[in-house]
Design goal:
263 residues, alpha/beta, Rossmann fold, 8-stranded mixed β-sheet, binds NADPH dihydro-nicotinamide-adenine-dinucleotide phosphate
């Protein structure tokens, strides 16, 4: 872990849950990134207060407004990030923002399907499009061989619930719209891995485990109703995984423990 240095990282949906914990872990690294872009849709809202407190204490944390369902806000954030980076590229982009809503084959509606798809799939697509030139710049400016998060990487936070092959084991979780969106995000990751390979940008989908967050609670299964892992346990694992990602993880889905999941 000590040798793993990322100059710049951007996390979407970083005001709470796994996103906020990622920001805390990047700050707490022995060699933290010089620039940590913590993006959220409402930086002035009460839900961003903890993030704002962090940014007030750590000058390397830069809060940017970014609503993944608003193309204008994505482009504006990319412009601000580019200006802040002052000629450097962006090493690591983590598409973390996501939503879930309870839905079964019987209850799923067109509104629910489209809204979850918009946030969980269209959002990551547009965010990566907008920041692609900065990821490319980071890859071009690096003298590291191979692929890594310290060079240039696009990590999409997905879910085992989007794994087609694993569905018989997880079908008891009634989130059909979410499952379909994460299956599509997995496909997007695969497409990105094909499209950005020559540019040297590592593209990986990552399942964070079942985590005690608002989303984890909403997707809650069984009487426990809300997650196996604390955000700290999940993100501690994710940080180790990010440190070890290489071309062998390009275009695949891995877990917070570094194991490969089938699509
Ligand atoms: P939370 O509900 O705790 O946090 C979700 C985050 O996404 C919030 O910061 C929220 O911001 C943000 N967000 C939602 N919609 C948008 C949007 N349109 N634009 C910008 N930000 C948005 O969820 P988690 O931390 O648990 O989830 C993070 C990721 O991990 C998601 O992609 C989720 O699918 C994935 N995941 C989570 C699992 C779990 O068990 N928790 C399991 C598998 C995957 P706001 O405060 O403004 O709503």
């Amino acid at each position: 872990m000590a040798g793993f240095h990322v100059h710049s990282v951007l996390v979407t949906g970083s005001n709470r849950g796994i996103g906020l914990e990622l920001i805390k872990h990047f700050i707490g690294k022995p060699n933290p990134p010089e620039v940590i872009f913590a993006t959220c849709r409402d930086p002035e809202g009460t839900r961003a207060q903890e993030l704002k407190n962090l940014a007030a204490q750590h000058p390397n944390v830069v809060i940017l407004q970014l609503d993944t369902t608003d193309p204008g806000s994505i482009k504006a954030a990319a412009k601000k990030a580019e200006a802040h980076l002052g000629g450097s590229g962006l090493n690591l982009l983590i598409n973390n923002a996501g939503i879930v809503s309870p839905s079964t084959l019987e209850s799923a509606t067109s509104e629910d399907m489209l809204s979850v798809y918009n946030t969980n799939v269209v959002g990551p697509l547009l965010v990566t499009q907008a920041f692609l030139h900065l990821l490319k710049k980071a890859a071009q400016g690096s003298n590291q061989k191979g692929m890594s998060c310290s060079k240039a990487a696009n990590v999409n936070i997905s879910s085992v619930l989007g794994s087609t092959e694993k569905t018989p084991e997880t079908f008891f979780v009634p989130v059909v719209s979410y499952r379909c969106s994460k299956a599509a995000l997995n496909m997007l990751t695969k497409c990105q891995s094909m499209g950005y390979k020559d540019a040297g940008i590592l593209c990986t989908a990552l399942h964070p485990g079942w985590v005690k967050t608002e989303l984890g609670r909403l997707a809650g299964r069984g009487p426990m109703g809300g997650g196996d892992l604390t955000v700290d346990e999940s993100v501690s694992g994710i940080m180790k995984v990010l440190c070890n990602l290489s071309e062998e993880h390009h275009g695949i889905l891995v877990t917070w423990e570094g194991n490969t999941l089938p699509w």
